[in-house]
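Continued from yesterday's entry.
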Amino acid sequence: MFSVRHARAEDISHISPWTRDTFSWGDYVADSLSRWLEDPNLKVLVAVDSFDVPRGVCVVQLLSPREGWLSAARIHPDARRQGLGTLLNEASVDWIRDHGGEVARLAVEDSNPAATSQVIKLGYRPGSSWAYAEPPEDPAPRLAEGDKPTVATRSDVDPAWMYWSTSEIADAGRMLLPSVWKWRRATVADIETAARERRFVSSAAGWLVYDPREPDSIEVVWVAASQNDFPRLVNAALRFSADAGIRNVYFKVPETGWSGEALRRERFDVSNVTVYSKPVSHPR
């Protein structure tokens, strides 16, 4: 018999051994548990056995007053196919509902069919597909004349937002904005914040917003450009980073077909991630 409760510090020693090598590259859960438990903006849930030992874990939080996000779901290898994933998901959705949320979202890499099947069985539906692009070893931007990128200002926010909000790329992404591996609805305030922090960039091809990663890396998370101009905007991002002494540029952009193709032409390693969602019903 399993039940769900909030995680405690003493659970870390039980969870860490089976959350270090989940994937071929390892995992981030074991090293993040202490920080998550101290973060007041999220909740770590565990599915425990009859001895109160954690056999499953997940993280749930609100990214806005109405938008819940689920992540880091892991089940002990010996406890799989016993309903723990469903149990944790139901508890997470209840938590979102209890805190006023109206939608639950999560992301699954398209290369993980087992997880995709599971979330669909749980009632989630695919909302948007995203191209996640890792940079080539030696990016060489081919900058067209007139495309020199510059840090945009507050005066660029409104035209950029108006263009983006009616664009194909915004529609493909369901108006969402990624932050690390979480997605929520974008707002014009996000672009205003990026402008204040000098993360809002303009070129003749359009606009982009980036988030800092490691000291020598950035990740482009918002783009406003047409199909014809998007390849030039990719090059503008590479040129901007090169001028700033930044070695690596990553992209998370809605997959339109042409967006992923343009990134692959620039020798980016592109994989796809789908954001799933389901409504959270409130009792009447």
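--- second protein ---
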Amino acid sequence: MWYLKSNLTLLLVVILTFSACSKDDECEVPALSENIIGTWNPQLSGGEVEFRADGTYIDEDDSLFGFEVNGVVFDDKSYSLDGNTLTLTASPSGGGGSSSVDFEITENNCDEIKLEILGFTETLKRK
């Protein structure tokens, strides 16, 4: 009987040890301005977006934001952060105006950032 109790106790300790640790425990979430730097996969729209430390971003598939007027592609892209707002701006390479869109940041986790716009949630997962 003592053998059964010690095995159950050992099993309980093992279960609690593994269930108490999660992947999130391994990461201290940095400030959004640091965390956003890198390559992300938008889950809703697909594609790949890279945010750079210099305030520019690459979004070749226009996964988050793309703009074109009369055949002029707005391919110079930049971003800014103000509190919980991520602003994406695009302008044509030769100048001549710009367009922007604001996303509300609802979650900032180590490998996942959630953005909301017009009632839709876009989840960015770190690549």
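The first strand starts at residue 38 and ends at 42. The two ends are 51 Å apart (CA to CA). Will compare against the first tomorrow.
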